[in-house]
């Protein structure tokens, strides 16, 4: 790769990679882990196409291998990923969880590899669950050795390698069930979605272990896809029905430096939505075909559903299937960054703004309807029929993380934090074995069973899903959480998330080792200590001032910083750093009553409680049944305390509420209004902890008095 | 028919029929119309089974032919039925409405009759639209001669007769498309639903014109069905997938006095829900079958959907498809009355109570979800996703009308009035050419197009529907409205609806001719004048005191009635009546702010406005966009005035509201709460008039301040 001459020392991925510590370095002391690759990946010579010429400033993230999390709040979750989620999900993928829907995902690979007999079972994209699990395992292996886990992963990789066809094709559904129908139903059949997850897993596993076996599988698979799809007349000018491979190919490019993978990703993005529409043509060419799932005649494709209704550069608003959308926007941001494409970046910003200012639940959930698991339109954010899929919020974090690599603006970190601390954390049970796929903001358990419009909403987390995209997605996000904490430019280390631990950050030709400590999210006091500082130049620490924070202060070595500079939501503390220097950030964290934009009909006259990054909710087990009968005066006093008995020390909010009396109604459904209310105590718990005690009603938005 | 010896002179249907005035009587003076039948219908001898032995008191309705409506409010609608709806719907059935979905209903009959070539088109129950139209035409012909309409109807009847198979079978879908598959898919295919509507039309047409042709078709059809279905081992022990024929067979029995039709109806009701379930067996016996509509494999039957999940006597709550449910409950009430079945009556009361006290929208709509057009569960009454199908409210009126024939209790009349004046009236446009199928209580037009969960909700009435059950159902209800006004027992004439006109009411061996006058629903002053009174015994006028009315007074010949007696919501004025006697009822009709039972989550913290029987609503064209930003203090003053400019003199309500300010939000979706409200004027119009001006938002329930 041609070295980019840039006087401001932007660290582009190729440079970054050289700086990633390999085995044997002093990073060992931090428990970092990483091994030299078996051999160097092949690198193609970059064409003079300009494809890879960055045209805007870039803020690369500090790689996950350079950061160790050791946090009173998060370590518990990360341990859970390692000790419970991954083993449990491995059992699930192997159909060993009593009472859960069988996955058959591993078995499908075994059959395709000729190691077992049987029929393909599960969703057409079942393979991806295995891939996501492997990706999560790779992140754990990057954080520290685990020979047992690595042996299991290697075993699985061997099966996957055996399942791959000699030409590189790999998708167990088509290998087992319809070998003649490869690539014939891109709209429904997820072949490239599965390939994308295998590629992501391969890149992560290679970076963590240096082992090439899965990377070689991924390269052969990507090479095969590149031989089938493209602008050339003999190739298919199609693109995936479910976007995912686009961002995966960027990772494959980063792992191999082979530019053709970046070009293939760009082809898929550029081709999408061009007229005549590929999916429309595919459908017209197969009128006699029955739909994969139900056997009914295939209906005409819903082009908005998979964001192929128009070219991406023309898309003004986030529409359609939310996961597809944010995976695609993430790839667009990757390509904008890697190819320096300003038009693509403009589209990314426009689509981001649309989501963040018009289609985002206060919990960081996206996707207002279960119909197509989709975005709807501006300000349409119903609480009790929300979809807000876990995977969609994870994809939103991907998107935010990529936008932060181009625009250093706290709004991206704010959304990342909101989605992470509310939807993503809340999707898993405290024991790591049960998950929400849908993350509603209001639940009436009777309605989940009794009204089919709400049957997608579950009042309790489920063991495993037939369509199990979310649990392994949570695992891979949490296992790679460290990569979301910091990024750098030539003279600033930016902190996006307040999670305790240590980092060795390469910057300005040297390295700064930094310790972060806090009791976040329960407390807003965060302390950074310089453990060692090699660079001699003045550097800044850039600390995200969260959007929820109205008052803050900052100390440098215990003294107020005289003229703190805030740029796009980042507080910058500049200094020539020495070992032992400290920066203390104090974010005031009072209870806030939030209201929604009046255009959000569903939240009219209501308030929601937030403290720090955490959205709060009422639960029936604290407040009695019929939460809709409660209202709250936002001007009244609320007390906050850490309840050591409850949910391992969560901070709860208590205050005064008003409850509509249910007395004297008899058999009546309607009556002339008469005031009949009584004062009551209300208690709110963090949203992410809901449904961990008795099943019951839950509400985030509460009637305002 | 054996004459029932009853000292209290209950008028059973057989007796009633004898009293119905035929041609040439003095009823001519009232414009009543009716001709002697071509010949007497065959009457079977009643078996000694006890099937027809009434065991409880019965309150027969005064037949529609004995009442003429001449009402400042309603005559406009009845003229619309005659002059616009019926001709327009005839055009629709003949595919002559530009821009409307083609019906093909008449064409299907022509093809089945061998009078045209072509394929069956439309829904599997398309025939029923023609039958409902004929039934409505029959009611118009009963009210007065219309040779042109009668000629059109006779022509249609001739085609229907030709379409009928020699064995009596009649259903154009199966005749044209799948002649070998008769009765093989009772769950989906509506053959008996269609038969039921043909039978209803036949009974009405015979009673109106005395012409037997369609009645004979209906008898042959019913006889054929009776030869196919029954408890005998060689017969099918099945029952309809869509209930309707059950109540139709009772009408056929009433028209022919042939008891076997009553017995067949009772068989269908008794058989329903018995174990093993018929539909379950039907499904198990046809695993290879594809579903009628989509071609997908037939899923297992949803037994609650069509109320076959358990025997009707065990059903505790209204569940499933709302129209199916209320049609069935109507038939159950018919059978309870005709067969004196106390257990069936108890079930009817239980199901009625469940609907009226737990599942009824304030507008008289039923069916909380579009998923299966169905009831959900107690207190689940969402406003913006409501289904509240027009046909379901019509069926609820049928059910109420039948319950009134056994329980003289104003609660039935109250619901009948609520459904009639709000949902049914509101379903048709002011010009009678457009209809709502779904009657929501809250509409955000953007959401109807932008959120698939609300795509069933339409912000404007539609021209015609592919599934066009509602428009002809509205027509037949309105054309037969007079039959819902009065009923009698041996010594009381009960008035259920306050609609001006004249009636000749047979009672106590004589006749009382009565004039009713009012400006209802705009005004609560109703005057009854005795035009002539033949009976010499003391008789009572029983006047329904509507549930919405809190203060009333009554005058007899201008003087207060000393000790007015109220029995189950009916005010009884007893007298020896003479020509010129008057009774004046004054129902106070202030603006009422109603609240819903606090268990109704969707209406928590909200109020609805009602005045008299009319529910009111906000519309965007009066109150600006974003109605959810408005709130109202129920204690503030509201003015009422007749707006002669607006919608032909409707009474509108005006008052003070508070509007949440939308200023200063910029691009924000959430912010810390701050009070930002301004006072504004609000204007409410009767719900039934919504969507007659500019399309826009509408809301019945308004946030309470």
UniProtKB/TrEMBL annotation, chains A, B:
Record GO terms (molecular function): hydrolase activity
All copies of domain Non-reducing end beta-L-arabinofuranosidase-like GH127 middle, residue ranges: 492-589
Keyword annotations: Hydrolase
Superkingdom: Bacteria
Gene3D superfamilies: 1.50.10.20
Annotated TM spans: none
UniProt domain Non-reducing end beta-L-arabinofuranosidase-like GH127 C-terminal: residue ranges: 591-703
Stretches for region Disordered: 23-44
Any Pfam family hit: Glyco_hydro127C
Domain Non-reducing end beta-L-arabinofuranosidase-like GH127 catalytic as annotated: residue spans: 66-482
GO biological process, one term: carbohydrate metabolic process
Protein name: Glycoside hydrolase family 127 protein
Taxon lineage: Bacteria, Bacillati, Bacillota, Clostridia, Eubacteriales
